[in-house]
Write a structure and sequence with these properties.
Helix content: 40-55%
Number of helices: 9
Order of helices and strands: EHEHEHEHEHHEHEEHEEHEE
Largest sheet: 5 strands, parallel
CATH class of the largest domain: Alpha Beta
CATH architecture of the largest domain: 3-Layer(aba) Sandwich
Shape: rod-shaped
Length: 345
């Protein structure tokens, strides 16, 4: 017997059996209403408040399968226990496929009522569990959507704040005359913009857990080329990157590494107004492993001896590579510089 009264709708054109079912189930604690045909059954379900529907197969117009077909087009309908003749197993299977939650063979003995009572309880319990599951899944989806919106807003604000910091650094750069200080501030601005670029990618992405690193590097390289050419460096930048997604926490060090290597190549590979090419390449070496390389055809440096400038860029590249579990490798070539980093994505 249910712990609280269940409202049951019995759809059957047999008034004598309907009265028997109403009395028997009433004694078991159910509130049983009767509908003699499909039309009245649909009308009562439409009013709401029904916990379980008992549906007979044979009706004055059509069958219970027709009723199930109509109910399948609606949402939030009560579970259905289908009633068929004892030899109508095929029809019972059709009813289950059409949406009935259970079926009971129709007989004239007490066992029919016992089975009906058990089926009602099980259908009601299963329906409650399904509603609870749907509610929990809906709440999880809503919570996830809210979190994604908030995270996108955070990334948007971080990107804007970093862009503002970069603008302040640029203003400070323009306000001083010392060339060494101006160069240092310009490099600092480039690093800030590289990190801001990751956050810009995140707040426009469908999945904030990863960054499409190929698109990010193309945008970053374009900004770097414009910035370096405005500073009077005449090299040309070429970007050749394979489509690839990397976790967000790996995108930032990759961006900083590219910023440092490209900036150094523009500044030192082609001195005295010389021009040439700087190439950024990213490719999948093997499943799960990528290779990032920056190379030029300039005067060359193999990572040994005194670095040009302050050497800060080389130290930053090494530190960022360490966060990727990698080590910068300087290529042994006749001219130019090649720095490659192999890392797990």
């Amino acid at each position: 017997m249910p712990t609280s009264p269940l409202n049951v709708l019995y759809i059957d054109d047999d008034p004598a059996l309907a009265r028997l079912v109403q009395k028997a189930l009433g004694r078991r604690g159910y509130n049983v209403e009767h509908a003699p045909d499909a039309e009245q059954g649909h009308a009562r379900i439409e009013q709401g408040g029904i916990d379980v529907v008992i549906l007979d197969h044979h009706l004055p117009t059509g069958t219970g399968l027709d009723v199930l077909a109509t109910l399948s087009t609606r949402t939030d309908v009560p579970p259905v226990v289908y009633v068929t003749g004892a030899v109508e197993t095929r029809i019972a299977v059709q009813a289950l496929k059409a949406g009935a939650m259970d079926y009971v063979p129709k007989t004239v003995d007490a066992e029919f009522l016992e089975l009906l009572s058990s089926a009602i309880d099980q259908a009601a319990d299963k329906a409650r569990l399904m509603r609870a599951k749907e509610k929990a899944e809906r709440e999880v989806r809503e919570a996830r959507d809210r979190a994604e919106i908030l995270l996108a807003e955070v990334n948007h604000r971080v990107a804007n704040s970093l862009a503002m910091v970069a603008a302040l650094v640029r203003m400070q750069t323009n306000a001083i005359a010392d060339k060494t200080a101006k160069a240092a501030l310009g490099e600092t601005q480039a690093r800030i913009l590289a990190i801001a670029g990751v956050h810009r990618r995140l707040y426009t992405s469908d999945d904030v857990r990863v960054v499409e690193i190929d698109e990010y590097l193309k945008g970053l390289a374009s900004e770097l080329a414009i910035s370096m050419q405005e500073a009077g460096h005449q090299a040309h930048l070429r970007v050749d990157v394979d489509p690839m997604s990397v976790p967000t926490d790996r995108a930032v060090p990759i961006g900083v590494i590219v910023t440092e290597l490209v900036t150094n190549a523009f500044k030192y590979a082609y001195p005295d107004g010389a021009t040439g090419q700087v190439r950024v390449m990213l490719s999948l070496l093997k499943p799960g492993i990528a290779t990032l390389a920056v190379e030029d055809d300039g005067i060359g440096w193999r990572g040994e001896g005194m670095a040009q400038g302050t050497g800060l860029g080389a130290r930053i590249v090494k530190a960022m590579a360490t966060t990727l579990g990698a080590t910068p490798l300087y290529g042994q070539q006749d001219k130019g510089t090649r720095v490659a980093i192999e890392f797990a994505i």
